[in-house]
Specification:
With about 160 residues, the protein is an alpha/beta fold. About 50% of the residues lie in helices and about 15% in strands.
Length: about 160
């Protein structure tokens, strides 16, 4: 039985960058222990919006991940085992409306709104994804709990 899931950008980041201190080694290790088996499982399709493909590649570029790794990742995204859903004007409009109401930046919405009805799970450690708007799209699971990640902030552990 095949399963279709979304993996938030922050988890891709911690899969590919190196830890900067002792505390973050656990975060990186936990992320790898979770993601590597998922990426190797032929029964799981990892779904991304076309927006998220560019977001992942840009975030990795900003973190100085090599061009070779980013090129390889893009080829992976374009291969079997991954599904990319194009972003539509309707997706952008709905994301904007929801962002205005929730005050959660539009980018989180652009990651998953195009995947509504396709995915059954969203894996994210970003506490924004606990908002009802995301829970209505699919079950949201933080696979690296008690770690909480949010763009622009240092990861924190909430035990």
């Amino acid at each position: 039985m095949s399963e279709s899931i979304a993996i938030d950008t922050n988890l891709w980041l911690y899969l590919y960058i190196e830890p900067i201190d002792e505390e973050s080694k656990e975060l990186h290790s936990q992320t790898k222990r979770f993601l590597i088996p998922i990426l190797k499982d032929p029964e799981i399709t990892v779904c991304l919006s076309s927006y998220q493909v560019s977001e992942v590649l840009e975030v990795l570029r900003r973190m100085s991940v090599s061009l070779e790794i980013r090129d390889h990742l893009l080829q992976d995204f374009l291969s079997e085992g991954f599904f990319i859903k194009e972003l539509t004007v309707e997706n952008v409009t709905l994301s904007y409306k929801k962002s205005r109401i929730s005050n959660i930046h539009i980018y989180d919405y652009l990651v998953v709104i195009p995947l509504k009805g396709i995915i059954t799970k969203i894996y994210s450690a970003d506490d924004h994804f606990q908002h009802k708007d995301f829970q209505e799209i699919a079950e949201v699971i933080n696979p690296i709990s008690p770690w909480i990640l949010r763009e622009g902030r240092r990861p924190e552990r909430r035990d």
